[in-house]
## 1
Amino acid sequence: MKQYSQMNKDELNALKNELDGAFVKYKEAGRSLNMTRGVPSDDQLALCNDMLTCLNANDYKAANGADCRNYGGLDGLPEVKKIFADLLELTADEVIVGGNSSLALMFDNVSVNVSHGVRDGKPWATQGKIKFLCPSPGYDRHFTICNYFHIDMIPIAMGEDGPDMDEIEKMVAADPLIKGIWCVPKYSNPTGIVYSDETIRRFAKLKPAASDFRIYWDNAYAIHDLGETKKILNIIRLCEEAGNPNMVYVFSSFSKVSFAGASMTCMASSKSNCEYIKQRLTAQTIGPDKLNHLRHARFFKDAASVIAHMEKHAQILRPKFKLVSDMLNSKLGGLGIGAWTEPKGGYFVSFDSLDGLAKRIVALCAGAGVALTPAGATYPNGQDPKDSNIRIAPTFPPLAELEAAMEIFCSAVKLASVEKYLA
Ligand code: PLP
């Protein structure tokens, strides 16, 4: 197939007529397909259904004797602290296990740093207009947290190995109002890239002008491999070695391991940071849902069985990611009208259209009954400077629906691109 840029007006018009006709048919079909958020599918959730019944009227005590029905315990049952610590290659006292949303842990952490400051620091709110670096495209809800706290966001370009480290090193060294950076180091949302060893080493060795600068290391997809297990370097250990022991907060989540709405999540950091956070937790909460922790402990037992469980998720997800990749390659390959990622894990495929077309493509899809994440959502303040990035979330729809949605998506990319060349 010819590249669109090589087509003459007649060829483009003929193609436009064909695609307009296809869109009339899509609309008539009255479909309602959803590829917005990266959520687990019903059959993935069913993998954990035994967790709903794995406790009983005689089983509510943790290994340390704690009665999980009662008050007590701030940082998680020892059983689940060990599971997270083993998965993240940390010690249990570097881990705090919380409730069902790691996003809530991140929000709280930013909130407290804004109002009270990091350990031995001044409240960020008293220091002027503070800023976060935001590798982009990135996770929209990280940006929403910044918006909520009126934190300025500075986009940082993403490459194959992670964000632009030259830029990050320069900026954090020069500006004491840069207080944080959002990172999704493994199977980044949405690009699916994995930070290289060199990138992670450079993060650990940052020399920020602000002593209260913090890395928000959201390792949401730590164990979400579609194929071979991929390991990334341990940022907490590297920060320790580099003399920056308190510079990083790690977050992780079982939302896409057990039940997305009823999982457990964790925050990990230096022992000193964890002690400081636990002091605050005494004012904030009576502790996490220990029965839910116990359910997870009973169901999973240990880190090795969590990894084995993730292979069951991968078996469900692999065909979906393959379908997306096959369709993009067969329908759009060689046309010069888009580029896309082929992630080895995580929950998303990232698509870049010709400049200025993402909003149009999303609108065309919406008109044909396919809901996509709004164009721009992957950039701070919803502003994609090139209006080109679209996040594809293939995990939730059954294969047949995914195929129908991708068919419409590929046609929308073609139609928007033809329109651009004809304009
Ligand atoms: N972090 C990233 C990078 C995500 O992609 C998601 C969900 O899509 C989350 C965090 C949300 O995690 P949780 O469900 O634990 O709040």
Note: Residues 303-332 form the longest helix (30 residues).
## 2
Amino acid sequence: MSNKTKNVYVFGASRTDGDATMKNLLGGKGANLAEMCRLGIVVPPGLTISTEVCTVYTEQGQDAVAKLIEAEVRESVAFIEKEMGKKFGDSSDPLLLSVRSGSRASMPGMMDTILNLGLNDEAVAGLAIKANNERFAWDSYRRFIQMYGDVVMGLKPVSKEEHDPFEVVIDMLKEKKGVELDTDLTTDDLKELVQRFKGLIRARIGREFPTDPWEQLWGSVMAVFQSWNNDRAKVYRELNDIPDAWGTAVNVQAMVFGNLGDNSGTGVAFTRDAGTGEDLFNGEFLINAQGEDVVAGTRTPQQITLEGSQRWAQLAMVSEEDRRSRFPSLEELMPDIYRQLLEAETKLENHYKDMQDVEFTIQEGRLWMLQTRGGKRTGAAMVRIAMEMLRQGMIDEKEALRRVGPDRLNELLHPVFDPAAIKKARSIAHGLPASPGAATGQIVFFADEAEEWVRKGKAVILVRQETSPEDLRGMSVATGILTARGGMTSHAAVVARGMGKCCISGAGAVRVDYHARTMSVGGETYKEGDWISLDGSTGDVFEGQVPTKEAELTGDFGALMELTDKYKRLGIRANADTPDDAKVARTFGAKGIGLCRTEHMFFEGDRIKAVREMILSEDETGRRKALAKLLPMQRGDFEGLFREMSGLAVTIRLLDPPLHEFVPHDEANQKIMAHEMNVPLGVIKMRVDDLHEFNPMMGHRGCRLGITYPEITEMQTRAIIEAALNMKAKGVDVKAEIMVPLVGTVREFNAQAKVIRKTADAVFAERGEKIDYMVGTMIETPRAALIADSIGQQAEFFSFGTNDLTQMAMGFSRDDAGKFLPSYLKDGMYERDPFESIDQKGVGLLVQMAVEKGRAARPGIKLGVCGEHGGDPASIGFFHRTGLDYVSCSPFRVPIARLAAAQAALDAGS
Ligand code: PEP
Ligand code: MG
């Protein structure tokens, strides 16, 4: 680096070097401080040492840094001195500084901060006289020694019990003095603390606390650079994908004090409501306090606006009289300061065109702005703020669409826990947030009992080791589902998401004992009937009943959704198995069904008996007899789907799962089955044994079933075509697509297509009437992707089954991956769970290749995806770029997919 490079940038009223566009060089905080100065907002002057210097620190160490920036820092400190009219190191009216980190991306609380820098035994006396407040001066001094001793000199606890060695000293003094609070300590006590702190540092570190302000400053700057590489910062970067190479900037700024008496104070404000998004300036402040007092929460903060204060009083049940005398708003208490603050917040929001979160300090009747940044907000607030800013002409449609995180829409679609109640709730376990929402209910361990309990009017949480399709009905009536095993695409997770039902899967610490009907976790045992609550958005399991509140879909949400349609290219369909699911999907804006898993209908009511009869049959005749019983039921299901989706495509997949999923595996239920079917228990057991496979996911399933038992395909096709004709007769616009699962060879597809077409023709001949329909295939085995050109010549559409494609391409099972994936993710073996977000560099290539080959073989072939990835925003971006026609996801993810598809189109500039 040449010594001509600028490394230090000042900001203040008379000169500012940086601006908001320089985040990479100055960090978010530094860039925004500079921008505020440019806007004429009053900010304590300061300097920012660039992120590039952090790289020099990491690569060459502190001597190199000192050499590089010493002259610039000295010059910049002189600038601060001039702005403040005080001298750094002066003993009569010292300029005190703060030293803070500030990287490109916000890393809250991860790095170190030092306040009140510049104090020593002489300066403290000067400060006391100047501030006319001796106690304040000594309190500032002891706080400085405490922070500096910890952060710069590295005085850390020697044991777990010690926690903070300085706090131990304070506690000892308080005990000696018989006082409880820090604020009860007198000036003399604080003086004693300063001596004790210095003694502690000397004893533990073997060095004196530095009295030279310049030595203090250099020590602090280096410590902040050093903190870029502390453990918590590294972990945070890993979790949030922040590159190590970015480095942090260091901000050195003149100190202002909010604890200089009753005309001083400090606070935090938001330009809009971060919870609801309401366009209402709001926030809190404390009189005679500094920032850490607000964070500590030991005093009740007051509201900034009168309106906010009145609303708060109502909630806190404080009378108007009490409010006015004890908790007046800033608007009432300091009208002039309030007016300045309002002016600054309006200026900042109009400038940044986004909701701002600002920090300020009032020092003896003068307002200083300390920070501004884009405010964190709930999903509901995101939507409302984006749409209101659009209406207010602050942002355009494209920007409004970009302002909402698609996944955050989850919060608007499911019931949520009352945030106040969550704070008090006891978390007992943690699992994968498989399906969002809030659920509270009594524990049951068996699906049939869940149904029974619900029939009696109870709310239940179905707790299982894992779930299987047999549990479907129990799952559908439960308010929530908790499983000890399984990942994000485990049965429980997929089904729960489809139902929009709260589910936590893979809560590994939970031990389920079906015999004892207990669940134990962390040394505690919960029995059937005990209450628990699940937060499906975070994966937290709570003890007892945590109150919930219904989600509200606001008008802004609908308007945002309409806007997505204007910009997205991808079509959005839903994976729906029943007319009810289809209805929900359509109200959320699905334009068709991309996957109906027909087997889910096989568990309803009496059907399972007919399915089992088919499975037990020794020959084709027996199977056909059983299938004939299923036919009218399936036809009825399809009629319902076609009716709900009139005018839109409905893709129906032929039977896919291995048959063993339809028979009971425990003796009690086998006995019931034997009784119901009037066959000996031994026969049932033998058949269940026959069906056993070592790896059923790679066994007798998918089109392999239809090829070995074509009569199944025949029955299902007949049900589909008859339903289509029946609905057409009723004026429904039917667009049926029949889909063959798990194809790996062209012959497999052709064999199934032949059965389908022959059966359809037979129905047409019987009815004397025809209807258009398509026959296509899933691309879900790697081989199918490899030979997609040959398959494309035969199949009229492809739907990528990325769940199976992922498990087969990766070589690990959807059901067993939960054993190692969490630690794999932690160790960075994969960036994201490949079942949740498509592995673009690997599995994604198979999709890309199949798209190219499919289109080459059949231009205009319809291409979609129906694996769980169809509802994942990052994957949707990939599918957009890959050129798919649509994605299909569970009904409750349709709005998320619509928004993600619009953002993908905006990102791609199309
Ligand atoms: C898939 O494999 O991606 C798919 C949609 O089918 P299923 O999840 O039913 O195997
Ligand atoms: Mg599949």
Note: The first helix runs from residue 23 to 38.
